[in-house]
TrEMBL record:
Domain HTH tetR-type: 8-68
The keyword Transmembrane is annotated on this UniProt entry: no
InterPro entries found in the cross-reference section: BetI_C, Homeodomain-like_sf, HTH-type_TetR-like_transc_reg, HTH_TetR, Tet_transcr_reg_TetR-rel_C_sf
Source organism (scientific name): Actinomadura parmotrematis
DNA-binding region (UniProt annotation): 31-50
Domain of life: Bacteria
Name of protein: TetR family transcriptional regulator C-terminal domain-containing protein
UniProt KW keywords: DNA-binding, Repressor, Transcription, Transcription regulation
Amino acid sequence: MGRPSVAAERREQILRAAARSVARHGLAGSTQERIAEAAGLSRSHVRHYMGNRDELIDALWDHVITPYVASMAAATAGREPAARLRALVDYLFGPQMARNDDDAVIEAFISGAMHDVRLRGRVYDTYSRLEREVAAAIREAVPGCGSAESLRAAYALLCMAFGNSMLGTLPFPASRPAGMRALAERMLAALGERA
């Protein structure tokens, strides 16, 4: 009888170490050697379980972003259109989007995407898919809202939510995040009034 595979456990160990490394040293400073050291493994183990650097970076992006996408989908699933849109706003401006350790990794990816075409495509694919999903929720909840208008509104909503989250560690008064959410709600209400 053979030994049980430890591949899933090792991949998780490496991805957690990679996230810590990227949060601390950025993408460029997170070499396979540095990640291996943080994981308590050899570089050859990192390559064995994760592949080359591009494959490791892709896996790290999925590791960090997938929980957000999944929890947003769970928060909005099974609701009628208007309630789904309200739940989406609740999610984007709620505690799920509060600053946490993953934000430094996500910001490193976005920053790295400015200089790396392959990485830019990877990050853009995720965010453009999210934009389309938010736009679809807007169109379903706001009869008469067209495709182009819903995409603009979705982009604005995401920018507002992500900017709100990014500035969350600064000592702005609580009225600022609340005001941003209220502004997002007014923007969505105005779409309904025009339709």
